[in-house]
Amino acid sequence: MKALVINCGSSSLKYQVLDMTNESVLAKGLVERIGIDGSIITHEKTGQDGKFTHSAPMASHKEAIEHVIRALLDGGHGVVASMDEIGAVGHRVVHAGEKYASSILITDAVMQVLEDCVDLAPLHNPPNILGINACRELMPKTPMVAVFDTAFHQTMPPEAYTYALPYAYYEKYGVRRYGFHGTSHKYVAERAADMLGVNIDDLKIITCHLGNGASVTAIKRGKSIDTSMGLTPLEGLVMGTRSGDLDPSILSYISEKENLPLHKVMDVLNKESGVLGISGVSSDFRDLETAVEEGNERAALAIKVFAHKVRFYIGAYIAIMNGVDAIVFPAGLGENSINMRDIICAEMGSLGIKLDLVKNKVRGKETIISRDDSKVAILLIPTNEELMIARDTYKIVAGK
Ligand code: ADP
Q1: CA distances from residue 148 to 54, 93, 226, 281, 367 in whole angstroms, order as listed
Q2: Domains defined for the chain, CATH in brackets
Q3: Which of 2, 15, 320, 336 has the highest Cβ tally under 10 A?
Q4: Average pLDDT of the residues of the chain
């Protein structure tokens, strides 16, 4: 069976087609600037040199998906003769509240749940819903599966997900910690167990998904028992532009001092904070590292604050799990920044965490980077959320 994986953002859409007989990627691509001037699709067929790009007005997600379908059917760079060859579509969906703890076949009832969760994820769920609706319209006979960022964390115990607020806010509005990046945390934890040749049920793993958005998860016996993101993806680590954990009093203090309404303060916390806010340089760690080389002290501080918070969560999760067997680094920064892994893992020898500085000089490939005498294995594992989505989709649709 061939599976199409769709990851819809507000103005962009990523896709992949996988052949599930051997889990190979047949084609992948990206549509950018949906609903904005200059919409463009970039499509890549595996094994073919170069990328196909096409600019055309795409006012809606439906028009974007029409272009994706055209690219998949194209005689030159396409990968199917008819869309009937696509046995199922897997959709990444950010928030399922407490409703789903695993992926699910999409029905009208499921769509209603996603609509009900829009309040909890106003930035993320609406584009996910638009993408699903467009696909259901254009491929009415193809089964579709929703794979949720929150699902993996539904195993967190109440003491980890309950905020110390009036309990009625949880009961009335679902105010609790949910966690995100679940598909990535689950994928890399399973790969880590495979790479170590140990049953995941016998492992305590800390996964550090460090990208533009970043989160750390404590995984015991294959289950998420705590994670750094909360009701929304703003809690936890310092991120590219997001503040992460704060004293909540800062909101009213800044609102008063800067004469900003609450929603504007929230914009600052989401879009102007994190390492961008501290450094004033960039949200991208490559730019920060260049700035540090040029002597920029605030860029150096931003990197230190980021690493400090990751170390803080690693320590917390060691306490919560009563130990750790493996620490895993996926996502843009985790996979690529030798310097960041070095700073995060420094001076944790008494916890049995010893990074091999030579093995650590590697980017973007699956490998163990701890010293032979390190009690805790440190692993670099590129994440593959699309493969996880395709696997769940295949499992649900083909009953495999
Ligand atoms: P997201 O999926 O959350 O948008 P990614 O996982 O793609 O983010 O990570 C993007 C981030 O990874 C970039 O902002 C950049 O900071 C970091 N990154 C990517 N490559 C490198 C590199 N070679 N060195 C340092 N940081 C890198």
Answers
A1: 30, 5, 17, 33, 27
A2: 2-148 (3.30.420.40), 198-385 (3.30.420.40)
A3: 15
A4: 95
